Amino acid sequence: MRAARFHNREDIRVEQIDEPALKDGHVIVDVAWCGICGSDLHEYVMGPMSFGKEPHPLTGETLPVALGHEFCGRVRNPSAASGLKDGDAVMVDPRILCRQCRLCEMGATHACEKLGYTGYHAGGGYAERAAVKETMLHKLPDNVSLENAAVIEPLAVVVHAIKETGLTDWKEKDILIVGGGPIGLALIIALKAFGAEKIIVSEPAEKRREQVKEFVSAAYNPVTEDVVGKCNEFTNGRGIEVVFDCAGVPAGLEVGFQTLGVGGLYMNVAIWEKPMVIPVWTFMAKHIHIKSALIFSDEDFKETMQLMADGKLVGYEKLITGRIALEDIVEKGFKELINNKEEHIKILVSTNI
Predict the structure, then answer these.
(1) Which is deepest, 114, 153, 238, 239, by most CB within 10 Å?
(2) How confident is the model at residue 253 (pLDDT cuts 50, 70, 90)?
(3) pLDDT at 129 exceeding the cut of 90
(4) CA 340, CA 320: separation in Å to the nearest integer?
(5) CA dist., res. 258 & res. 240, Å (int)
């Protein structure tokens, strides 16, 4: 079958490989669409980072490996116990879990001591087919098509981030989102599903500001506009209550800390390429709380699927700004997102076009 495999930094090759081997409890998924994630871009530019020098303890996988973890497709020959039927449209939860460590037993599966990811530690969705543990498949709701379902995985990431804040009553919260890219827009859509109404976005790219405007109270350019002043005006001087950092750059952190009011929460959702430097005096003087969120738990993924089924993630289709064939994944996918990232939110890849 055809697959796009990561060999090394800036070395992804579309090539013929063997069909995926089936282990106990695994089934074949015929991949429909797979989204290019920011973490895949980091691997392409800076990697290998997620791939260990030794085989993964749960899969034995080593490089090269078919990338892609945001994927959906149709399941082949599932067991009767799964509740699935042959050909059912499914979304893949790409996490690979031991289910035995203390963190898994606590329900904190997003922090499994042997955590792996399909698409890094087992063949992923940039391929015609993938072998996936049957228990990690979720049947798509009738109102969600395979054309758009691949964005469920990044939506689960932001649902986890929202829940990790520990906050409720989002309708009354003054929120600033730093970065209006894929995770920023997904977060906006999810926050709206949780009832948030007062959202401001700080994003330098004009096209991305235009893409988020219909969902938020305001979107400002931090390069040319006084975001801190605008936020103070918006909150009548109280300051922002929650900042979600989806950019992971020093300038964004600085704006976030300056806009926060006393006792505010800074939630980092971004993957930083360089160390995060905290302005300690501002942090202490404002009694700022700092949290971070990464990946998602079983419950987060199930809740995201339910939000999709209930039609509460309004506008999620707008996360998709491009579709390409597998053979074009490097030039029209990775390089396009690196060189023209301001023009895109999410590009989906398929072997069927």
Answers:
(1) 153
(2) very high
(3) yes
(4) 15
(5) 9
Quick check: 34 and 178 in contact, CB under 8 A? no
Residues in the chain: 353
* SS3 label, residue 325: strand
Torsion of CA 246, 252, 257, 258, to 10 degrees: -140
Positions of E strands within the chain:
2-8, 11-16, 26-35, 65-66, 70-76, 89-92, 95-96, 116-117, 129-133, 137-139, 174-178, 198-202, 218-220, 240-245, 260-268, 289-292, 320-325, 346-350
Structure tokens at 130: 């993938």
pTM: 0.96
User: Cα separation of 153 and 213, whole Å?
Assistant: 23
Q: Give the model confidence (pLDDT) of 174-191 as tens digits.
A: 999 999 999 999 999 999
What's phi and psi for 339, nearest 5 deg? -85, -25
**Residue tagged 């160390």 (tokens):** 275
Instruction: Dig out the tokens for 160 from the structure.
Output: 């986890």
DSSP letters of 254-298? HHHHHHEEEEEEEEE-S--SS-----HHHHHHTT-EEEE--S--H
Q: Is the peptide bond before 78 cis (omega within 30 degrees of 0)?
A: no
Contact of 96 with 130, CB cutoff 8 Å = no
Q: What is the DSSP string of 159-178?
A: HHHHHHTT---GGG-EEEEE
